[in-house]
Amino acid sequence: MKKVKIQIIKIGIQHHNVLFKKLENYNSKLFQVSIKQISRPNCDFGWGFNFNSLTDILQNAFDKDVYDLCIGFIDTEIENNYFSKRLSEKNNIYVVSFFEIDKILSSNNINLFNFMLLTIYRCLTRFKFNRKPSSHHETKGCLFDMCGMKEDIIYSASAPIICQNCQTIILEQHSNKQFLNDLKDELYKIKKGTYYRIKDFIETNPWFSLIIGIFISITINILSNYFYENIKKLYNF
Ligand SMILES: [Zn+2]
To answer: Residue 127: pLDDT above 60?
Structure first.
């Protein structure tokens, strides 16, 4: 399947430079990226979508002859405090804001890079399927959760899924399951760090974790004794 060519536009100097470097090395079957840095103009007018706006900034910066899709990233607040917004009728220019999301994810031990990937997959799917699936109000940990309460982003950013309704909508647009399967495979790899997943498991299953801990200690003890006895026999202690 042909990869979608995405131009990532980094608007101004940002706190999260490391994410863009990581994204350059990210391997996907569905998209490839190129990153372009532009300066952030004066923001006396605020970061709206109409007059003298983010739409103009991104439309001017987007090299549309080379790339299929443009996603601008900014770390300040944008109009209506959205975290992601489509800016063009052609469905090929989007803006994503890290504002507040970075603090919400950090306090839940979730890497902000998960959010960056999530928004890219979300924009990419909508670009391919003419703005579908739409966001749904119900929070399910789905790529298309609306997240009216920004805090709800923690569910999709820690282990994103495509809910059954959204899968049906995608297959209505494109009966070939290859895109959906690739999307699900790549979303499956977006997780919290291993340390924090173990920590979450212990916190949510304290008794079960205690039993596992005791079982592991006993097993290690038995194995140590077994090896000790064998070494003793071998060297005639
Ligand atoms: Zn869904």
So the answer is: yes
Q: Taking residues 143-149, report their average pLDDT.
A: 93
Written as six digits, the tokens of 91 are: 């469905």
Question: Which residues have CB atoms below 5 A from the ion given as ligand 1?
Answer: 142, 144, 163, 166
CA of 179 to the centre of ligand 1 (A): 16
Report how many domains make up the chain.
Answer: 2
CA distances from 103 to 99, 100, 124 (A): 8, 5, 25
Cα 187 to averaged position of ligand 1 atoms, centre (Å): 13
Q: Are residues 10 and 68 in the same domain?
A: yes
Say if residue 184 is in the same domain as residue 229.
no
Residue 45 sits in the same domain as residue 152: yes
Give the CA-trace dihedral at 97, 197, 146, 184, to 10 degrees. Answer: 100
pLDDT value of position 160: 94
Could you tell me the pTM of the whole model? 0.83
Does 83 lie in the same domain as 40?
yes
Q: Which domain holds residue 155?
A: 4-197
Q: How far is the CA of 66 from the centre of ligand 1 (A)?
A: 31
Distance, CA of 220 to chain centre: 39
CATH of residue 50: 3.40.390
Band the pLDDT of 39: cuts 50, 70, 90: confident
Split at pLDDT 50, 70, 90, the class of 195 is: confident
